[in-house]
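Exercise: predict the structure of this protein bound to zinc ion.
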Amino acid sequence: MKASMKLGVVLCLSIATHAALGQQAAGSDAKRTLIRAGHVLDVKTGKLLDAQTIVVEGKTIQSIAPTAGVAAQAGDTVIDLGSLTVMPGLIDVHTHLTMSTNFDPFYEVTMTDAKEAITGVANARTTLMAGVTSVRNVGADAYTDVDLRDSIEAGLVPGPHMAVSGPALGITGGHCDDNLLPPQYHRVGDGVADGIAEVQHMVRKNIKYGVDVIKICATGGVLSKGDDPQASQYTLEEMQAIVADAHRLGRKVAAHAHGAQGILWATEAGVDSIEHGSYINDAAIAEMKKRGTYLVPTLYLEDWMIEKGNLPAFYHQKMLDTIAVAKGNIKHAMQAGVKIAMGTDAAVYPHGLNAHELDVYVNQLGMAPLAALQTATINAADLMGWTAKTGTLEPGKWADIIAVEKNPMEDVRTLEDVKFVMKAGVVYKGANAK
Ligand SMILES: [Zn+2]
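Solution:
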């Protein structure tokens, strides 16, 4: 029987799911779930192991062993995934779950905090169903991402594990400010902070209200009015102050940076990742390699924009200019050995298409399939500081498990159609439990 026939498409947050959540909360006598997998892909080595059983207890993986040696016990739930290939859930380190793919200026200026939060609830579910079991959400208004994270963790709504930044820090009039309205409206982006004292205050304020990571805008951006992606925005001194405070308080820093000077300054200031990196040059590449700074390319959005984008004139030309150079520069950085973690900028294009980013790495930029899979698993977990929790299927880690029809090492696009999703031991998609 074909696996696709065995798997009913059960998009479930069913009563059974809620029961499972309840059992986990009870703790010590957590039930076991046995996942019978046709194949398990080891994303450390690229090796495919046949006929494996993953034993899940509560939220975590207890063991992985050949199916022949793992008998079901009374009370176990058995999920037979047939001939599907199982691997760790994907991790996207650059999302905006509380934002939509809509760049109509009127839509943007009439956004409310409540609408943004509700948008986040819908997009969190879509993202999880696409096989993304963890995200780093870098930029949201009014701490809507903090509440979304906490609501998911509480079991109120379905979604991936989230590390969140709250409002992104940026200069007045910069990419992370709100520049659409004339001066009489006095609109200021939530994360705007200028000068050493203000950026220190904003880092501390974001941490006060519950963020896991600090996001900053080191250069101008594409989807903002009146600024230049190549121009540096924060100074080296401002970014050094941000990084010093964030790291002292136990938070990593993600820097939006397109222009080469801004990438270099942000890297010298000690940020943990450069987002986008469109105009990255050899000096920035050398500094990132020296410091082990991650690059998060966000490239599939360019393909989507060319095909389906509908941007106002004041964004459109900047998008064309960036698209003209970004893939070539990023390919150069990849070949030079800069560490890469998969991020998508989901919201710039519709949520749930996250895995298309890996298709760009492999089939457009020539990255080896195993290296590409590691950007969305091992590397992404490392960047987030979550290596002990996720990124591989190993005992003690979260039971964040997906299954696809083909071996992603041979066809990475199989990840664009994920058949089964388990997050923290709970099945959200494609269960054939018995
Ligand atoms: Zn972004």
